[in-house]
């Protein structure tokens, strides 16, 4: 949540890259991650233990996704963000209501 609501808009504002680029890819991958989590949750809710495929897909997406964020996007954001920008993002992160990110399946 904080990435899409706070960090990505900062990158897009600083670089002018909101229609293409890394944040577009990250948002697509966030949707894919959510879909896999939903699929796993559905199987757990049905007491269906056959979630190996969904779990492996989730792990594959997460591995690639995290590498892109940690090795490329986050350092790039650090390059364009001022100290004030970072402070604002961190303060805003602290102020996100807990109920906004402690959601299951939705």
Strand content: under 5%
Count of structural domains: 1
How many distinct beta strands? 0
What would you report as the Rg, rounded to the nearest angstrom?
A: 16 Å
Helix-strand blueprint:
Elements: H1 2-15, H2 22-45, H3 52-80, H4 83-94, H5 98-101
Overview features:
0% strand, 106 residues, 78% helix, mainly alpha
If you had to describe this structure to a student in words, what would you say it looks like?
With 106 residues, the protein is mainly α. The chain has one domain. It is 78% helix and 0% strand. The two termini are 12 Å apart.
What's the short story on this structure?
This protein has 106 residues and is mainly alpha-helical. It has five helices and no strands.
